Every structure is written in structure tokens, then in C-alpha cells.
Description:
Oligomer: single chain
Strand content: 15-25%
CATH architecture of the domain at 2-171 and 223-249: 3-Layer(aba) Sandwich
CATH topology of the domain at 2-171 and 223-249: Rossmann fold
Amino acid sequence: MKVLVTGGAGYIGSAVVHQLVAGGDEVVVFDNLTQGHRAAVHPDAVLIEGDLSERGAIDAALSEHRPEGILHFASHTLVGESMEFPFRHLGNNVRCGLNLLESAVDHGVRRFILSSTANLFGQPDRDLIDEETTISPGSPYGESKFILERILHWMDDRFGMRYAALRYFNACGALSPDLGEDHDPETHLIPLVLQVALGQREHVTIFGDDYDTPDGTCIRDYVHVADLADAHIRALHALDGGSRTYNLGSGTGFSVREVIETCRAVTGHAIPATVGPRRPGDPAVLVASSERIRGELGWSPRYDDLRTIVESAWAWHQSHPRGYGDRAPHAS
């Protein structure tokens, strides 16, 4: 299949691109490189440096390459920043998504995968979050993804666009020692902890240790980026069977302290940790039920062991302590 991947130079998007290429698909990456990295793009993928805010650039890419499907990862994704600057996230994510979808309809693209989020569930009303959990977005970022999910419902209803919305929890790990996580600013727990082991931070902060959990710290569901990529590709090839929505997670939660202890064991570093105040809106436990995608598509996370996840991330951070600035870009 020939596909266009927006945000295909980013952390999750680039992992999906590598697995698509490995599976024999023809891939075009559309990315403005503000958060992504040219060096993360697979050398066999076509890279178009463009912005989804420019409808003409999208039209030109779809006209030239005629993809059969689109996987949409490009967006503003910082939850905290979206609370401070709601229009930036709501405006950018929704407007750019609309530009992409309208162009896709005009160019006859009828397969669409949306990278959605577990932030749709805000403060969930159950321990294992399945697709029937009440949607109440926890931030403008989460709201922007829910709006796009609703728009996709109408794209299916009016134009026959088959879609999958994949709501995932904490993406983590590295696809290989040469393909990993490089954000600025970094907000994800595992790379923040590993930056202490690299000597790039003095300590890691635990935001609250008085939650109703076994060790008092928040529990989260960590999903290896390779498993996320696998789920996206399975969903893409299943769209002939109709549109669908899936929650993606391992079904197992690990606390902040468990993550830090695992990082200490893997790196051999003491990794000092201090306790700070709770962050507003942080639930004690967020763990996904992925029974629907397991049953319908046969997906099952292969890398659900926390030590394996941390080891893959540590291999990437050791070989690229300054991220993709450590190596020359791929040819595009």
C-alpha cells in the first residue's frame, strides 16, 4: 500500500514509518520538522517538508503521490502547554486536521488512521479504561483529539472514509539504538529519569507521593513504541472491515517509583529523586484495557516488561545522548 504519514519524522510516527517500509509499503512523510527530525525518517521514505496549515501544500503532496491511506500523527501534544495556551492546541490541531481531511476527501483517499490519546478520559470512572469509558477530555489537547474523532465519524458517514482512532497511553522505549525519543522540551518520565543517569539533570522530581496506590506515586500504563507501530499498521490493513476505535495499553500499570527503580537497575546509576507537589488533574491510576483490539486484530504487546522497555530506551540514549544531533541526517 502507498501511504502518507503526517508527523512521520516524530517519535511515534517515525517508528511507524520504519515498520511500514520493512513490511513493503511505500511511504511518503509529510512533516514541518518543528518537532520531528530529518534523521529519524527512513531513507527509503519520501520526505516532504510541509505544514498542514497550508492547504495548498497538502493538495500538492496528495496530487503527486496519490496515497491510498493516511496516518495522522502531526499535532501539538503537550498537555500542560495546552492548558496554558488552549487556542494553540485547539486551533492548530483541529484546523490542520480539517485541512488534511478535506484534501483527503477531494483526492479520493478513503483510509485514515488518527493518532488519538488517553487524555480523552480525563479522570476515568474505572480502573481499566476501555472504549466504553466516559469521555471527558482532561485538557484542550485531549479535546482537540476528540473533535477530530467526531469529524471522522462524519467523514465515514458522508464520504465512506474508513478510519481508526487509536487512543494510547504512555508511549515509551526505542525501536532501536538509532531510533528513539528526542523531544524539546522533554516531558515523558522514562527519558527524564535517564537524563539524570546521563548527567544532564541533577535529579528527577516525583509529583506527589500521597496517592492511593501501593507506594503513593501515580501508576501509568507504558506501551513500547514498537507495539504502538504494530497496532497502527494492523488497524490500517483492517479498514476494509469498517471504521473502528481502540484503546492501546499493556493492561498493566507501573508506578513512578517502580520506573525510577528499574532505571537505576538498568543504568547502574543512583538517580537521585525528590518529591514535589501533585500536579493538578493527575489521576492516581491510568491503565488501559485493550481487549477489543486483541480480540479483533490479534494485537498483543510484545514488549510489556518494564525492564525491557527501559533497556531499549537506555540503549538509544547512550548512543545518542544529545538526540538526533549526534548523527548526520538521512538523505531524503
